[in-house]
Amino acid sequence: MSTAAKRTVFHLRFGWWSLLFFLTLGVALEAMHGFKVGWYLDVDNEVRRLMFTLAHAHGALLGLVHVGFAATLHLAGAKGWATIFASRALVLSSVLLPLGFFLGGFGIAGGDPGVGVIFVPIGALTLFTAIALTAWSLPKASG
């Protein structure tokens, strides 16, 4: 199997497993709603609820982005240094963004998220980098 094919399979696996993990997190959040868990639902914990919801949503969405990235690699034949760095940046952003939101749900002070939210802008920057490098790596259309 070629390196490009291995990268495609990696992102397919990463994407589908991420989607499963973050959808499971979403079910757990819904269960906390259903069982009226005060630690999650009380008005004082509104920031925690928001941070956990954002972690779930961003994680699930990024799982789908990995599947799209794998399809792009396979269908468009994107390759080269830009694809390698895009792949690494996408994985890094898929860890940092949801992790930052999730950690932001702990250590809440005065309505502000916890210090773990510092990972969010770093994850966002790596996601922008991954998207730009993916677009850059696509072969030019021939007339």
Describe how the helices and strands are arranged.
Blueprint: H1 3-34, H2 38-41, H3 46-76, H4 81-104, H5 119-137
Helix pairs in contact: 1-3, 3-4, 4-5
Low-confidence stretches: none
The tally of strands reads: 0
> Mean pLDDT, nearest integer?
95
Major sheet characteristics: none
Radius of gyration: 18 Å
Number of separate domains: 1
**How large is the share of residues in beta strands?**
under 5%
* Separation, N- and C-terminal Cα atoms: 31 Å
Based on secondary structure, the structural category is mainly alpha
Helix content: over 70%
Can you characterise this structure?
- By secondary structure, this protein is an all-alpha fold.
- It has one domain.
- The chain has helices spanning 3-34, 38-41, 46-76, 81-104, 119-137.
- Helix 1 runs antiparallel to helix 3 (46-76) and helix 4 (81-104) packs antiparallel against helix 5.
- The radius of gyration is 18 Å and the shape is elongated.
- The protein starts with a helix and ends in a 6-residue tail after the last helix.
Essential attributes:
143 residues, mainly alpha, elongated
Gist of the model:
With 143 residues, the protein is mainly alpha-helical. The protein contains 5 helices and no strands.
